[in-house]
Amino acid sequence: MASQLGIAGVITGNYRLAVNSGLTTGLSANNPVFSFRWGSTTHKCVIQYLRIGAQVITPFTNANEIALEAILARSFTASDTGGTALTLTGSNGKLTPQSETTRVTDARIATTGTLTAGTRTLDTQGFLIVTGAQTLAAAAAAFTPISNIYDHYQDRYSLVLSQDEGIIVRVPIAQGAGGTVRVTVEIEWAEFNPAAN
Predict the structure, then answer these.
(1) Beta-sheet strands, E only, within the chain
(2) How far apart are alpha carbons 17 and 163 in whole angstroms?
(3) CA distances in angstroms from 137 to 27, 65, 176, listed in the order given
(4) CA pair distance 117, 102, nearest whole angstrom
(5) What is the spatial distance between Cα 119 and Cα 164, in angstroms, rounded to a whole number?
(6) I need a labelling partner for 100 at 20 to 30 A (CA). Which of 84, 87, 175, 176 fits?
(7) Which residues, 6 or more positions from 195, have their beta carbon under 8 angstroms from its beta carbon?
(8) How far is Cα of residue 120 from the mean position of the Cα atoms in its chain?
(9) pTM: predicted TM-score of the whole model, two decimal places
(10) 60 CB contacts (<8 Å, ≥6 apart)?
(11) Residue 67 to residues 8, 16, 125, 144, 174, Cα–Cα distance (Å)
(12) b/e for 32-54, b at 16 or more Cβ within 10 A?
């Protein structure tokens, strides 16, 4: 049963993935760097943990703010494209050997540029954001990695994805010139069949 998640139904699997982007450069504002699409007609997806982070690898020519935002996508009927598609077949991502192969429709992360948006409608505001800044020009720049976490707790509602919903991680602030950034995403989820008991 899925009662420990605050939902009704039978859990069919538990999963976790952790991925790095390539060295992104020159990204424009509000474009996606990670995409996670849920299209199952029979199961739902409970997001239990999401961590988004970034590290400047090559300093920007001038001071530059760095940010990532996780935002929910609705009416997600065509996957984003580009980047590197995550391998979701077989045992990939399974936390337990008895888990079924994940029903995630598509998940991918950017290489050097942003992903190309599929068919989806994003919420107006995100549900998780992280910001930092390279405060000096390249010659003297230093940047501490930034990250933020969404974590499910017993006393809060779960983040549940239904058919044609998903999560997009995007850069809300454009990257400046001359720098590269590596994005990190860690995501853990459970899948359940609400019709089963």
Answers:
(1) 10-24, 31-38, 44-58, 64-78, 84-85, 104-109, 119-122, 128-134, 146-151, 159-161, 165-171, 180-193
(2) 20
(3) 18, 12, 11
(4) 23
(5) 10
(6) 84
(7) 9, 42
(8) 15
(9) 0.93
(10) 134, 138, 141, 175, 176, 177, 178, 179
(11) 36, 24, 14, 13, 9
(12) bbbbbbbbbeebbbbbbebbbbb
Contacts of 75 (CB under 8 A, 6+ apart): 119, 120, 121, 164
- Note the residue count of the chain: 197
Q: Position 185: which residue type?
A: V
Contact (Cβ atoms closer than 8 angstroms) between residue 175 and residue 23: no
- For residue 165, the one-letter residue type is E
Domain residue limits, the chain: 3-193
> How confident is the prediction along the chain (197 residues), in pLDDT tens digits per residue?
455 555 677 999 999 999 999 999 999 999 999 999 999 999 999 999 999 999 999 999 999 999 999 999 999 999 999 999 999 999 999 999 999 999 999 999 999 999 999 999 999 999 999 999 888 888 778 888 889 998 876 566 779 999 999 999 999 999 988 899 999 999 999 999 998 86
